[in-house]
Amino acid sequence: MAASQGSARDRVGLGWRGELATGILSNLAHIDVLEVIADDYYHAARAGIAALRSLARQVPVSLHGVGMGLASTIPADPRRLHAMARLMKEVQAESWSEHLSFVRAGGVEIGHLAAPPRTPRSAAGAIANIALATRIVGSAPLMENIATLIQPPASTLDEAGWLTHILDGAQVPLLLDLHNLYANAVNFGHDPEQLLLRLPLNRVGAVHLSGGHWIDAPGGGQRLLDDHLHDVPPAVFALLTVLARQAPQPLTVIVERDGNYPSFEHVLDQLELARAALRAGRNA
Q1: What is the pLDDT of residues 119-158, one digit of tens each?
Q2: Which residues, in sequence order, are CB contacts of 227 under 8 Å at separation 6+?
Q3: How many Cα atoms within 13 Å fall on the side-chain side of residue 94?
Q4: Which of 146, 160, 182, 265 has its CA 20 to 30 A from that of 257?
Q5: Which domain of life does the protein's organism represent (predicted)?
Q6: In this prediction, what percent of the chain has a pLDDT beyond 90?
């Protein structure tokens, strides 16, 4: 039974991590949906796939890709797309997502989700790759905005304009990472709420929440690093309230944590804070 919510349309869940497995499986009544890193299962043994399929029968599961590099003028690797297609079919996941980033160029894997130059050309490459991915996987991905510590060189579009260009051109939903948005805004002197309101919020299908920490910038000052190792800050919950007030469609909110794990009771508290932020926006 899914957890009760202030608005029955909205859901709040968690990113599946092995370190959190015991807590997750013991508290499924408090978790509406789980998001699983797809790349971890592309070459998994049958037992691993069977376990994931069993999990998907107990709670809705979405698959999240990290290695396709769809925001690129380089065509996406069909092998990765076919792997996602097989996993979607085997697990019967409800949806899948990827990042608006590139991860390789010139045959070099950079091991990082990097922001391409925000130009009409890179947007066109992303739109073409999303179309290819949709054909191969059989359903359209939700596409996620990423955090960056530097403004992409040679950009002619700002972040909101570039994202809107791709989402409208590809006709796909946005997986809105609110901490990524917040980090980019504060790092480059923008107002986070104003940046949020410039996005096509009617296209938001899901939301990521996470935390980060401040690091020294090379030229002095500091940058906020999105690291998934810390609690969701109050300012990001506040952005979720703004989003819930502005976007009438149902939202699926995923809290991400990749390390420095607190007690699972604390993790559940983070989910409840997300539910409270949603209710505050819906009831405004």
Answers
A1: 999 999 999 999 999 999 999 999 999 999 999 999 999 9
A2: 211, 212, 213, 258
A3: 15
A4: 160
A5: Bacteria
A6: 92
Report in angstroms the alpha-carbon separations of 138 from 84, 92, 135, 167, 276.
10, 12, 5, 18, 35
How would DSSP label each residue in the chain?
Answer: -PPP-SSTT-EEEEE--GGGHHHHHH-GGG-S-EEEEGGGGTT--HHHHHHHHHHHHHS-EEEE--S---SSSSPP-HHHHHHHHHHHHHHT-SEEEEES-EEEETTEEEEEEEPPP-SHHHHHHHHHHHHHHHHHHSSPPEEE----SSPPTT--S-HHHHHHHHHHHHT--EEEEHHHHHHHHHHTT--HHHHHHTS-GGGEEEEEE--EEEEE-TTSSEEEEE-SSSPPPHHHHHHHHHHHHH--S--EEEE---SS---HHHHHHHHHHHHHHHHHHHT-
Question: Are 267 and 255 a contacting pair, CB within 8 Å?
Answer: yes
Token digits of residue 190: 């923008």
Q: How far apart are CA 208 and CA 179, in angstroms?
A: 7
Q: Are strands 102-105 and 108-114 parallel, antiparallel or unpaired?
A: antiparallel
Buried b / exposed e over 157-182, threshold 16 CB at 10 Å, is bebbebbbbbbebbebbbbbbbbbbb
